[in-house]
Amino acid sequence: MATNNRRRFRRVTAISAVAVVAVTVALASGCSSGSSKPTARRTPATTSASTTSIPAPRPAGPGIIIDTDLSRWWDDATAIGLANILQQQGAANILGIVSDVPNSIAVAALDAIDTAYGHADIPLGAVAHSEADTAKHGYTDVLVQRLPHTVRDSGDVPEAVSLYRQLLSRHPDRSVTIVALGAYTNLAGLIATPEGRALVAEKVKRLVIMDGVFPGGFGPVTNQKLDLAAARAVVAGAPGTPPWPTPIAWVDGLDGIGTRVGGTLCKTVPADNPMRITYEKLFGCGPVRDGNWDAPALLFAVGDVPQVFSQLGRGGAAVINKQGGLSWQARSTRSEDVYVHLVNQKKLNQRIEHLLTINRKGEQ
CA 63 → CA 78, 161, 186, 344, distances in Å? Predict the structure, then answer.
């Protein structure tokens, strides 16, 4: 893969990429809208554009909380965009979105995307110590500069773990799917206390994580590297604390390599569409130069394209291997865990491309 090819698996060599694609082929052949955003302070931010909020139908789809490292990488932006489109269509119910990287304006960029799609009331949370602002901003600055938003920075929203607990406490048992697309920091923080763990066990139906290359695996890649201790706490448990208490579905790295999407955005959507703004910042209006791992995870989590994925490894579980990364252990007490592989790349890409090019009014 190209040296600037994003992210989680950018360190995998060309030989490894060929190997995992071969595995994919082999496997394929065998195989209530959230309440107003709780904030510490909120005043309208100065923006360079204006928009009219588009009323969305009452969401009827699965309730999801998205945990994202949106800041630098194309696929995080696409996952948030797709989630908003699916919410417009009543196919998803975004209960909240939390940032898991210490970029203090990541939540402002999330608010800008949500507002552009008519969902300014989606609750947002920021990872603890976001004010340190040590993560690279990537495209978040341009989203904040060009689109309306009311959240200015991490000081305007609750800490992510606090928001998780608020959201989970108000929804029915086993009704919430968490879609984890970045660092494990918030997840580990959520289960670090008996009260948080009990809420997860009671309210969460399944955790969907974008990470790993199963079944074999290798050393840690980007999502683990963002917070290795937190990743270990979720997968294997921390001292005196068991691992994550609900079923986990791992949408692994094999699913993102060939998922190259968004190349038509500069021709198909207005200049102020948040997906186009992000694409232009990353790639100009040239060819797609990166895979996409998070959009497949989001679509799998909400059941949008069921014929595109296979669920494998039932009866086993992800473990921390000797290299510190993730591998699949064939036998485990975690009887409901699975890893997810792609079986129809063309159909997946077409679906993502279609959703990305739906504009803010739900039109193409």
Answer: 19, 18, 18, 26
- pLDDT tens track for 128-157: 999 999 999 999 999 999 999 999 999 999
**Which residue(s) pair with 63 in the sheet?**
93, 176
Say whether the peptide bond before residue 215 is cis (omega within 30 degrees of 0).
yes
Asked if residue 169 belongs to a domain, the reply is yes
Write the pLDDT tens digit of every residue in 252-265: 998 999 999 999 99
The residue to which tokens 């048992």 are assigned:
173
What's the whole-model pTM score?
0.86
Strand ranges (E), the chain: 63-68, 93-99, 124-125, 176-180, 204-210, 248-251, 309-312, 317-320, 326-329, 338-342
Q: Phi and psi (nearest 5°) for 243?
A: -70, -175
Query: How far is residue 10's CA from residue 131's CA, in Å, rounded to a whole number?
Result: 28
Amino acid at 100: D
In a domain, 82, yes or no: yes
In a 10 Å sphere around its CB, with 0-12 CB exposed, 13-18 middle and 19+ buried, how is residue 321 labelled?
Answer: middle
- CATH code of residue 295: 3.90.245.10
Q: What is the CA radius of gyration of the chain?
A: 19
Query: Is residue 363, in this structure, part of any structural domain at all?
Result: no
Please give the tally of structural domains in the chain.
1
Q: What whole-number distance in Å separates Cα of residue 308 and Cα of residue 346?
A: 9
